Amino acid sequence: SPFFENIKNLFLVHGDIGVNFFFTLSGFLITYLLLKEKRVNGTINIKNFYIRRALRIWPVYFLTVLFVFLIIPGVVHLLTHFGVAIPGDALVGTELSRLPWFLVFLANFGWLIHGPGNFASAVLWSVSVEEQFYLLLPWIILLTPKKYLVRMFITILLLSTAYRLFYSPDVSILKYSTFSVLSDFMFGSFFAYAAQLIPNAKEFLGRLPRATSYIAALIALVLMPLFTLAEGQAASSVGMSISKVLVAFFPLVFSLLFAFIISRESFVFKELSGSVWSRILIYLGTISYGLYCYHGIAMLAVKVLALTKLSAIIGNTGLYAAEAILAFSITVTGAALSFKYLEKPILALKEKFNVLSH
Questions:
Q1: How far apart are CA 211 and CA 167, in angstroms?
Q2: From the CB of residue 254, how many other CB atoms can be counted at a distance below 10 Å?
Q3: Between residues 248 and 308, which one has the greater pLDDT?
């Protein structure tokens, strides 16, 4: 039915708001750690920072790239050879001519030039943006005097907002351009600065009642359907329109709310410790990078398995539920195995490049 198709598209295909959250989270966490390193050591070891980030990001990223450009096309061609019907968009974006964009972490700009790819490659543009941010942030914090750092963050935020407004007629640029999403990182960076360097800010955030986080989350949830509606209207309108201006500014509101929730919860997470749900959430957080990178592969695998044949038996509603459950199961299993056998052994090497004392 159209209703369930819209639900599927909202939660499985369009992850714009989720990407907002992760960019804001990265801005907060990485800025917090770099500020702490500079405060404790008087400087930032940029070489070690880059090595630590590479050890965390590169193994899973390049394994996903291997799937996108080699394994998936090989499997699809093999299945096609044996007469298996394959969805027409299964190989979109897997052309080898696109590979260089991914190898140098410029996939988001590759998408702007060549168009988006399939489910499997859908997440990699955001990893490219993260890497570009990691390339610049340590230099900004190292070279900017502490008293000017907030001004620097605000300046970057304002420039990114102006960029978003200027390009608001082009929704693709708002989504995929590094310059348009820098605002997400900067909200996280600003709250990290407040928690690290503004006296009593961390204590203030920690003393706020948990209800404040719930209220912020509720506001975000209320705004999400409005954002989705504005996106739909912006995509169908020509030239500048109110809907496109709203699409330009909505993510700024989400990032502000997310930055508040992240910073507040970072200092009171102990309230949740010990419960079964907290252990589950902590484990899912531990394997979250794999969950993020592999879920597109799992979704494409489910699609290629031609589960649509089941729709005649279980109906569209049952089909969407089956697709979601199977994709989720494949993703969690793959991420768990990846963390145990690929990421964890490599992450152990990060300790050699840790510049903060325990």
A1: 37
A2: 22
A3: 248
